[in-house]
Structures are given as C-alpha cells and as structure tokens.
Amino acid sequence: MLSKFPYLRQDFLASIVVFLVAVPLCVGVAVASGVPAEVGLVTGIVGGIVTGLMPGSSLQVSGPAAGLTVLVFEAVSEFGVGTLGVIVLIAGLLQLAMGFVGIGRWFRAISVSVVEGMLCGIGLVIIAGQLYAAAGLKAPETGIGKIVGLPGAFADALGSTRALVSLAIGAGTIAVIVLWKKIPKGAQAVPGALAAVILTTAASLAFSLPVTTVQVEGLLGVIQPPGAEAFGELLSPAIWGTIIAFALIASAESLFSAAAVDRLHDGPRTEYDKEMIAQGTGNTVCGLLGALPMTAVIVRSSANVGAGAKTKASRVMHGVWLLLFAALLPAALALIPLPTLAGILVHAGWKLVPFRAVVTLWRGHRGEALILVVTAVSIVVVNMFEGVLIGLALSVVKTAWEASQVKLEVIDKGAGPIQVYLSGNATFLRLPKILDTLESLPQNRPVELDLTGLHHVDHACHTALKNWSERHSTPGTPPVKLTETPVATH
C-alpha cells in the first residue's frame, strides 16, 4: 500500500489540517453570501473531490472564497437563491471554454495592481458588511452605504445589550485568531479560526448568551438543482454581466493563487489551461447542485503546503472529510454564533487588503499604486464588476501611455527649411503635444517633417500629421516635405 502511495502519511495529515481550516471558512462565506451554511460545505466538497482529482495545480485547494462573497451576495439579492445555480453553471462552462481554447495562461498578463486592487476593494466591503453582522444589525446593500453607515450602526449597538454581547463575541473571535499565532507551536495544530469557533461557541453555551446562531437545513435539503424558471432568467441581459464577472474574477483569483502557491513548494508547476478546466468543471458541478461558486483559495492552499502535502491526495481527502462532517454532524453547525463567523470574515477581509503592496508600489511605481487604489475605491463606490473593468481600463491606458514614448526635435538654423524629426512610438495619446509643437512653427518658412525615426505611428496620429502637413504652409511657401517609411505606419 505504502509503496503505491509513498506520501500517504504526509498527505493524510495535511488533509486533516486543510479540513479544519476549511470548515469555518466554508460556513462563514455561505452565511455572508446570504445562503444556508451547508451550501458552503457543498462547494468545499466539490472543490476537494471533483476539482481536487483533476490536473492543473497539484497542491492548491479550491472551495468557496471570501473574495467572491460580495459578488454572490449581490447576485442572490438581485436574482434570488434559485437562480444562483444557473449563474454558477454558465460561469463554469465559460471557464471550461477558456481553458480548452488556451486562454488560461493569458490571465497571467493581468496587471497585479488590478488584482491587488480587486482584493483590496472586496476586503473593505467584507469588513464593513461583517461589522454589521457582528452586531446583529442589517447592513446597507451598497459598499459605500456600508462604510458610511458604520458610525450610526455603532451608535445603535451601544444602546443595545444584545448588540454589545454580539459585538464582544465577534471581537473575541478576531482576538483568538490573531493571538493564536503567539501560542506554542504544538497547540497551533488546531487552526486559529477553528479554535475561535470552539471557544466562542463554548462561551455562548456556558453563559447562555443572547446571540443568533447558524440556521441548519441539512445537506440534502440545500442541494437544489436549478429549475426551468431559473434558466428562463438567462433571457435577461442583466444576468450576463454577473455571469461574466463570476467567470473572470473566479478565474483570475484562482490562477493568481496558483502562481503564489507555486512559489511555496518545489513540486510540479501549475499548468494554467488545465487548472482553468479544473476550476470550470468544479463550478459546473456546483451550479448543477445549486451551490456557491468556487475558486482556488490561498488560505487553504498555503495551509496544505505548510502541513507537508506532497500530492493532490491531500485536497481530495479534505473533501471527503467535509462530506462526512456535513452528513454526520450537521447539528454542530447550529451551535455556532453568527458573530463568530462575522469575526472570521472580518479577519479574512483584513488579510485581503494589501497594505505592504500599496506602500511598496508607491515608493517605486506610483502609477501602479494609483491603479490599485482606484480599482479598490471603484469596487466600494460602484460594484465589483465595474470596479474591475475600471482598473483594467486604467492599466491599459497606463501601458499605452508608457509605450508611446516619442521624441520630437526641431532644428531651425535661421535660414533654409526648418527640420523636424520624430522618433519612437507616436500614438493618439501623444498627439496633442506633437500638434502643439508643429502648429507653433512659422507658416511662411519651408518645413521638412521626417518620420523615418518612428517605430510605430497609429492611424489617428498618421492622419493628423498628414492633415497638418497639407494645410500648414501659406500661399507662396513650399509645402511641407513629409518623409516617412511605409513600415512605420499602421
């Protein structure tokens, strides 16, 4: 047996660690997304057993991610829980298509600043929203509304004993998770989030604290394949923006997680297109079961590597343990206080905010730091999908601006023609500056415009230069002499 599976012991122990990390996160993400707790466990099970068996990235672990919580909550609020399965199903099929046509590896070309900004914006919205949940209050629907409404929410909480007790449990949860890393290494075999769940649940039961706990429906009760009515929603154009957002954001988060996990171990490297197919397969199955969307999750993946996993067997076994837990011990979920889960997600949201990355980028690449901040703010103020699109647009504009470096040199010897040399890359982004210089030249002097030094000139720029050369000279003055190479014009 051991000869066939030489790493069985290491993978078994790692699977236990990943399972213990996954349970509170699966439940917390589900509750924060506005769906039953067991739905998160279903996604964790599919991520472990289905996606875990497939090729791609051998050590990263998939499941419901905090990074999609905001988007899922918006989708459930707008379209209903019954339609969530259809959204996830079609998003999974899109991921499969992208994987089969080889788009997976292209996700590595997305600006890291946009991804960091996306996670930062998501983190801020999660923190703000879960602070309301920690106090047992209803959160506003918009991201900016959640943040602006916090002072009023705290004022309301101060006048309610029940809200203060709930807040205390949430704060205690965060304190346990943060301080857990300070205790002896042996005790840290139990993950901090799970320790926080056990301790706060025990305290709630021991002192009969007036807090709301998780609602349990049973594993089979929450598996609801989408019906004909849900598929009918696909006729609405509004739902397609959400589907595309699910597919793109889940793919980007998974593949960036894969790149990060590859840096943590010396085993086989990720095959990005195969990993995209694995993620698409998992989300297709999740959609058919009416579960949450999945991504690769860096918290579980790093725990898997850190626990000594050697093969994909560890993540498959973690899925089996989740299945056994959900099937045999569902009543245990009903004991968990909701503010405990809120505290776990506040901590998870805090870890999504890249404080060090912002400082580092500001020191060396302020343009990238600006993209990160604008993406994050856009997600908070507008919504997830449009915020990411704004970040991507800014990234493209910045790249185009940096690529369009053009040098304009004017030589005027006082007599004879004025010589103008353009070199580099002339694009519409530099056109105003180029035209300002050219239009300042005297119209009663001959001008020689030399474009042979240009590596690239776009259509807008080429047309503008031709038009200027045709209309520049006054009657009686020789027309502008334009010298260019056919290769330079596009």
UniProtKB/TrEMBL annotation:
Keywords: Membrane, Transmembrane, Transmembrane helix. The keyword Transmembrane applies. Residues 8-375 form the SLC26A/SulP transporter domain. Residues 468-490 are annotated as: Disordered. InterPro entries: SLC26A/SulP_dom, SLC26A/SulP_fam. Its main location: membrane. It holds the Pfam family Sulfate_transp. It is a multi-pass membrane protein. The chain crosses the membrane at residues 12-32, 39-59, 79-103, 110-133, 163-180, 192-211, 238-261, 320-350, 370-397. It is found in: Membrane. This is SulP family inorganic anion transporter.
